[in-house]
Design brief:
Its EC number is 2.6.1.16. 44% of the residues lie in helices and 16% in strands. With 364 residues, it is α/β, with parallel strands linked by helices. The strands form 3 sheets. It has a 5-stranded parallel beta sheet with strand order 4-3-5-6-7, sandwiched between helices. It is globular, with a radius of gyration of 20 Å. The protein starts with 10 loop residues before the first helix and ends in an 18-residue tail after the last helix. The protein binds 2-deoxy-2-amino glucitol-6-phosphate (AGP).
């Protein structure tokens, strides 16, 4: 992939369109079918060390933090290691307890984000083991960490992250599978995840073929005064990232909430001018999510669902192919990148260079 626009009107559109190839690249040469696992050459964490990890803490900013949230869920689910993500910008200022049994992971597209780098440096000073999940090879965070996984998304020029976000989530799936197979993940489950990983590029192509309809939906929702994004568990980081993307590029105010928290406050905001984008994976929380759609409908809210099948209670549904439940978050966010893009286009925004933002924030 190059810096050439290749016929696209913006880098954002080019980068969204490149995602099937990008995911193919993060997988290439890493899958080991024989042992139903993956090889991550630069990890520098042997099996004994991996088994000794008691907790995983993932640090990043913005989209990288959201990809880290997806990663934390994957690591907990597949490797059964307690894991969570925190904004690096918060972590570095709160004098955190640095625990020798915790594996710290810094996530960054650029590898130069100052807050994330400062968190890594603070951790290193305190003797922690820190890995990187980074896109830019040889960047500061890649150099300062003890090892890690390159994301191989290729150059990302648009200020808002799209293909790197997706590839980072896939890189975390690889890491989770690797840790899982060293610990208690069965061969059968390892194979199930590998098969799912291989289906991703084709499914991404399928989602991107639906662009024309998403463009129409974007035009229909572009008059919103604010938008609510909701999801439960696997759907929540997807909602957060989609909300960030929409506000960055279209300047429409957007809020992301766990669907389960709506009734504890944000439901007061629901009215026809505040549509809700609901992330509805086909997992064991499907019925709970359907109940949420009903709650919103009962308050005259417009609903755009992102789901694997049409949602009766939604005004519109974007249907996304289903993969393995653990991998579905990788796919569910992609149509919402297109929604943000087409909303910004409809509103005449400067898509590749949104106001007030820089691609990487390398100063305090
Ligand atoms: C992405 O849409 C944003 N531009 C922003 O949130 C970004 O993800 C964040 O600044 C972190 O950048 P990094 O991945 O290069 O560290």
């Amino acid at each position: 992939e190059s810096y050439d626009m290749g016929g696209h009107d913006t880098y954002m559109h080019k980068e969204i369109s490149e995602q099937a190839d990008a995911v193919d690249r993060v997988l290439r040469g890493r899958i080991d079918d024989r042992f139903a696992t993956v090889h991550l050459g630069g990890l520098n964490l042997d099996a004994r060390e991996a088994r000794a990890v008691r907790r995983v803490k993932i640090l990043g900013c913005g989209s990288a933090y959201h990809a880290g949230q997806i990663g934390a869920q994957m690591i907990e689910e597949l490797a059964r290691i307690p894991a969570d993500a925190e904004p690096a910008s918060e972590f570095r200022y709160r004098n955190p307890v640095v625990d020798p049994d915790t594996l710290y992971i810094a996530v960054s597209q650029s590898g130069e984000t100052y807050d994330t780098l400062a968190a890594v440096q603070e951790l290193k000073r305190k003797g922690a083991r820190v890995l990187g999940v980074v896109n830019v090879v040889g960047s500061a965070i890649a150099r300062e960490t003890d090892g890690g996984v390159y994301v191989h998304a290729g150059p990302e020029v648009c200020v808002v992250s799209t293909k790197c976000f997706t590839n980072t989530a896939v890189a975390f799936a690889l890491l989770a599978l690797h840790l899982g197979r060293i610990r208690d993940l069965s061969v059968a489950d390892g194979r199930r995840i590998i098969d799912g990983l291989r289906r991703l590029p084709g499914q991404i192509e399928e989602i991107l073929r639906g662009e024309e309809r998403i463009a129409k939906l974007a035009a229909a929702y572009a008059d919103a005064k604010s938008m609510m994004f909701v999801g439960r568990v696997r759907g929540f980081p997807v909602a957060r990232e989609a909300s960030l993307k929409l506000k960055e590029v279209s300047y429409i105010h957007a809020e992301a909430y766990p669907a389960s928290e709506l009734k504890h406050g944000p439901l007061a905001l629901i009215e026809p001018a505040v549509p809700t984008v609901a992330i509805v994976p086909g997992d064991d929380l499907l019925e709970k999510n359907r109940a949420t759609l009903e709650e919103i409908k009962a308050r005259s809210g417009r609903i755009l669902a992102v789901a694997h099948v049409e949602q009766e209670k939604a005004d519109d549904t974007i249907v996304v192919p289903a993969n393995e439940p653990e991998l579905d978050p990788v796919l569910l966010g992609i149509p919402l990148q297109l929604l943000a893009y087409h909303t910004a286009l409809a509103l005449g925004r400067d898509i590749d260079k949104p106001r007030n933002l820089a691609k990487s924030v390398t100063v305090e």
